[in-house]
Specification:
Radius of gyration: 16 Å
Order of helices and strands: HHH
Largest sheet: none
Structural class: mainly alpha
Length: 90
């Protein structure tokens, strides 16, 4: 459960990563997915888990997948920026 919660916290930061990467549409989509992700989490924690392939189930897993893609995009962007900055120094 702790690992899932950690990934959910990272997913919650994802819209800010998209905004930093100037991907405003992706930030808006991820924000909507976050609502479904947290809704599914609280329903699963305090009630019976929703059925597989329900809207909230899809939003939960899609939000986690999009978040991991965003973090990879962010890391690639940072590496490119540092390489460009390093090449400008020499």
């Amino acid at each position: 459960m702790g690992v899932t919660l950690m990934f959910m916290m990272l997913a919650t930061l994802t819209p800010f990563l998209f905004l930093r990467l100037n991907k405003k549409l992706y930030a808006a989509i991820q924000s909507v997915l976050l609502i479904g992700m947290w809704f599914y989490f609280f329903v699963a924690m305090f009630q019976t888990a929703p059925a597989p392939f329900s809207i909230s189930w899809i939003m939960f897993y899609l939000s986690l997948i999009v978040a991991e893609v965003a973090w990879i995009m962010f890391i690639i962007d940072e590496v490119k920026f540092m390489a460009l900055r390093r090449s400008n120094l020499y």
